[in-house]
Structures are given as structure tokens and as C-alpha cells.
Amino acid sequence: MRDITEISGFHAHIYFDPATRDIAAGLREAIPSRFTAKLGRWHDQPIGPHTKGMYQVAFGTDQFAAFVSWLMLNRDGLSILVHPLTGDDVADHSTNPLWLGDALSIDLDILRQFVQPRREGPIGIAGTPWGAPERAEWRSRQLRKRSYTTNVVSGIDRLRERFDVVQYGELDYAPERFPLFAIKSRDWNDKLPIALITGGVHGYETSGVHGALQFVDRHGADYAGRINLIVAPCVSPWGYERIHRWNALAVDPNRSFRDDGAAEEAAALTRLVAPFRDRVIVHVDLHETTDSDETEFRPALAARDGKPHEPGEIPDGFYTVGDSENPQPEFQQAIIAAVAKVTHIAP
Length: 347
What we know:
Strand order of the largest sheet: 2-3-1-4-5
CATH topology of the largest domain: Aminopeptidase
CATH architecture of the largest domain: 3-Layer(aba) Sandwich
Helix content: 25-40%
Radius of gyration: 22 Å
Number of strands: 10
CATH class of the largest domain: Alpha Beta
Largest sheet: 5 strands, antiparallel
């Protein structure tokens, strides 16, 4: 018999569709004042193994009886999946869960493919920063889960008929090599200002990669003769394939845009932009904050650097981050107003 001490906590996934979103919102608003629980982000579209829009609520074992009982009485027709956290994500979503309301389908193949096994044990010694052996051990555990060539480079190639494509570098993570591409306006005019768009600086932030490609495909031509566009849709392809924040050396490329930066991903992009940097009037760097920032990557960062893990917050919805040296609040507010028409804005 298994012991309940294997359970470190619980997740409740509260599902909704456009017709029931207000019910889900009412339930969500009522939770913080009643229970010690952490609310995840709204996901209006299916995400990961979840085949319907949902948000997640994380809560401790001490809250189970009261919180689940309350959900039973107040779910108002919503389907809710409650599952334990045992370290086996496939079992926790399939053989171990409790359903309130109608049980929905869960795409277990995605869990099997994309969730890194967690039974390998910690890397290194707690409180001691990683050295080369620990980084090598970490890299050996990172599984290739999707293809940069198939998913990204093929999309870039389809744009070559309408835009110029330049290779601005190549990553050598033997035995793998990754060419780095940028898409440029075909009618490039040195007299015009430049807009720089980047995605996939953190490789696991998928929406930025494919959002950048879709923007070029659907709207890039609209700016012809008005502004030069240069788009680097996937800055960190190794991280894209592993669905990870870091590169193959366990370095965060987004913390390396400086003279002594340790990530070639950042250095190559910096070299690309250097000749025309003074003419760039706007840089849109597309990121995506996910619940895994808190559950996986911040704990990994603390382990890598030999520091205690300090829990943080995950913004609930879309938000912008400005340049403290050149604030443009009206521009950012205009972006938020436009995005608010299609998705949730962080409070």
C-alpha cells in the first residue's frame, strides 16, 4: 500500500467555455478569501494535456477536505479535476485524480512526451552552485521534445518569397548545430526607422515564437515603406526543442544581453543589431509567463546557483514590461487596450 506522505499537494483544474466563463470567474473570485491556495493563470484555450479552457488552483494537503468539499457544493455545473502531486504527472492526471462533475478527456500523450521525469533525484549538493559536472548532468536529462527545423525553420522558409531572410549566427551544441535566422523587410530603406521583434529568447515560451512568425505572415507587408521590420522569431532554438528557459549550458539568454554575457544566443543577436541599433525606435520582445516558472524553473535556478528557493508570483494575464530609462506608458496602454479585446489582462 502506498502512503499518503507521497502527496506533496494538490491541483484543481477548473474547466470552462465561453458560456460558463462568468461562473468560473465567480468561483475564482471567492477562493482567496476562504482558502490558502494559489491561483494559476486563465487559459481560455486548451493548453498542454487539457482539452478545454481552464485555470489551475494549487493547494496544500491540509486544505484538501475543506476546499474540495466547498468545490463540490459551489462548482455550479463546472467540471473540475482534482489531482495529487506525487511526482508522476501521467498517473496523477489519469489513475489518481478525482473528478467533480463530468469527466473530460485528458491528452496523456502530451504528458508522456513533454513532462520531464522527476524521479531522477536532485542535481548537485543543496546550497552549492553547480559546476561543470552538474551542468553536464542537467543537460543529459533534457529531452528533445519538438523540432526547430520542422516547426520554425519551415515557417521562415515559407516567408522567403515575400521577405528577405538572413542567417545571423549558428549555435554549436555538439553534436547539434542550430542556424539562427532573422526576417527582414524586402523593401528595406536605410532612410526609414527600424522596428525589432524578437521571440523565443526563452525557448519554452512558444507563443512568442509562433506569434512573431504569424505577425510577419499576416501583417508584415502592411508596414512596407513606413518602417523597416527585422524579426528574430526564435532566439534560443535549443531551448525551444527542449521546452526550457535556459540554453544547453544552463544559461538564461535573457540575462546575457551585456558585454560579458555568457549566452551565444544573446551575443549573436547583439551582433546582428549593432550596425543599426541607433535607428531602432521600438523593440517588441515577446515573452510568455507560465505556471511552470514557479513550479519548475525558479526551483531549478535556486539549485543551479546554490541559493534558497524563494517563491514568487505569476502574473494572471497579459502584461507589458517597459524600459525604465525610456518609459512610454501611453504606448503600452494602447497595446494593453488592444489585447484586452481578445484575452485577459493581468490586474
